[in-house]
Fold:
Amino acid sequence: MLRDLRLKVRNRHSNIGSCGHREFLALSKQFFAFVAANSLLTSVMAELLARNPQSVEEATVNHPSIQVYGETAEQAATIAYTKWKRFSGQDRPEEFFDHVIGSDGFDGSLSRYRDWYVDPLFEYLDEVLEDSNIILGTLLRYKHKVEWYRRQELQHLFAENSSQGEKTLAKHMYEYLFDQGISFHVEPQTASGRPDVISLEDSEHPFVGDAKVFDAAGRGATYIKKGLYQVYQYCFDYNEAVGHLIIFNVSDKQLRLEFPSGVDGIPRFEYNHKTIFITVIDIHAHEETASKRGIPDTVTISADDVIREAKEQEQAPQ
Structure:
């Protein structure tokens, strides 16, 4: 699947890299529609932007005499995505001309624009797809696989020993990630304790994550809020901007997360320059289909709730 996706991305790069200035806007719109329709690419972009907020801010500078490049390949890709996506969202084919210095006609300007704001993004995508370092997208595929095909299996795993069920479910998830080619080790020691952290030893960005069970009782809203704060702390321990919280919902209640999300629709908790992506996996044995259940009981957690929890934890005596 990744090989096919990589080939599709390369084909689009080839087409966009050889087109004239009259076709560039239309092909740009087609490319970003392609990204939006692919959950793996959407998740890759979500993580990229979350890791490089300063580059996103720099890329909003529109004055043509100011050019931003980024000091790393990731920063360059972030700037490229932000600048190019904004261009694709308007209707002036020649608008790119306003963002290059020393332009020498439309074709020369387009070549320079591609060097600065197109090629870095394609190069980044090619490397990420080659390395299979697609954490968020893999977690979303795991969520869909479990909810659609393995729900009963995980119910049974959890019911066998509910006191250890959280670790059992986490182990099942780790096995899936391993099968997808993601190398890691589990539960390393950190300054904040012994989390279910998965560390990618061969990756520039370790996967910092934790798995929690939500049962709406002993492990309810307060438990999840503390779990989010834990992942936030682990991000500091590993000096990472992005973390993940995976929640297995074993209750008949719906967990509503009132957190901001991007156009990708993925909920995230953002606090003090850290972003925690949240993946909720429903494994409860619902007796009726979704259309017949009616309005479910709901437990709501807001970003403000978690921020209050974080501040209380930070102010608590050590």
User: Anything to note?
Assistant: The CA atoms of residues 138 and 285 lie 24 Å apart. Residues 2-130 form one domain.
